[in-house]
Known about the structure:
By secondary structure, this protein is an all-alpha fold. The protein folds into two domains: 1-36; 39-123, no CATH class. It has five helices and no strands. The protein has helices at residues 4-35, 39-52, 63-82, 87-103, 109-123. Helix 2 (39-52) runs antiparallel to helix 3 (63-82) and helix 4 runs antiparallel to helix 5 (109-123).
Amino acid sequence: xxxxxxxxxxxxxxxxxxxxxxxxxxxxxxxxxxxxxxxxxxxxxxxxxxxxxxxxxxxxxxxxxxxxxxxxxxxxxxxxxxxxxxxxxxxxxxxxxxxxxxxxxxxxxxxxxxxxxxxxxxxx
Length: 124
């Protein structure tokens, strides 16, 4: 019975060391990947790149465009969460999608105006 005790203790120590080492490696990988991601500015730029290539928000003819715009709005929201400087961009990008959902018409005058305003926010 006494030989089982040291073996169990060794297994526990090795297990704990493995967990600590694994967690340390994961933290290092996360830190390196987050440092190179570009942060809020990269999210804002990506959002505006999607806006640039989205021609229509009309759910009757182009659901992909509406989905793409929704993704851009989420990227802008992530940018704003990381840096308040991007709050106005996030607000501008979410408005067209909200209006499309309200009117279910991508060609509604309010939607078209909101899209124009969002594109201007990307240029600012």
